[in-house]
Amino acid sequence: MDVNLTAMLRARQLFTLVRGLKRYPFPATFENVTFPPDGQLKLAKMPKEPTYDPEKGEEKYKTSKRTIWGRGVEEIHTELVHEQYGLAAVSGGMISADDFDFLQDRVNKNLIDKQFAIWRVDPPWLPRTKKAQGTRLGGGKGSIHHYVTPVKAKRIILEIGGHITEIEAQAFLLYLCERFKFPVEFVSQKILEERRVKEDFIQRHNQNRFNWDIMMKYNMQNCTSWLSPYDLEWKGKYK
């Protein structure tokens, strides 16, 4: 038998053509999309410093770094209001006015018709001081250089919604995560729901008897003496 004919017969035995119906996913519909009530579809410009009313006795003030405002986990603003897509902090950090300007410029340029974006954090309000270059030590605290916004872990920073799919949102939100000085991730309503279900499943089916509550209750290996108060409060999950 010819060699080519033998090869064709073997190939026909391995691959059999089958005629059938292909099931393609339905196109995304935006029936349940809710737009902002104020009609603002693009990110508003964040002021670089807070405003003070002298008539009410308000004035600029200097303070310590107050890094405690960026530690721990957020307890309120952890869900997406419009249940679509957004950016969330993985751990705590500070957002400067330059970061807000960059995010506003990049996001607004990528939004098209029937798409919107909203802020979920406050404008910069925490002062940061800096002394002039070449200044000697001493002389008290330096002058106010800029303001920042502290955020905690799991805090939603901004939201994207409207007639937009997840792939389109990821296209210009993922690279914005690298702008921050602390880890930030892309989240969607589906991701948050799956994460919540997974955490509940692990908590209900966990067979490990030694967890943080048991360790702290019975002070195993004298852990309460060498663990920090923040570890005892947040159970070692957040810094």
From TrEMBL:
GO terms of molecular function: rRNA binding; structural constituent of ribosome
Domain of life: Eukaryota
SUPFAM superfamilies in the record: Ribosomal protein L16p/L10e
Keywords, in A-Z order: Ribonucleoprotein, Ribosomal protein
Keyword Ribosomal protein attached: yes
KW Lyase (keyword) present: no
GO biological process terms, semicolon-separated: mitochondrial translation
Cellular component, GO, one term: mitochondrial large ribosomal subunit
Family: Belongs to the universal ribosomal protein uL16 family.
Name of the protein in question: Large ribosomal subunit protein uL16m
Natural source organism: Mesorhabditis belari
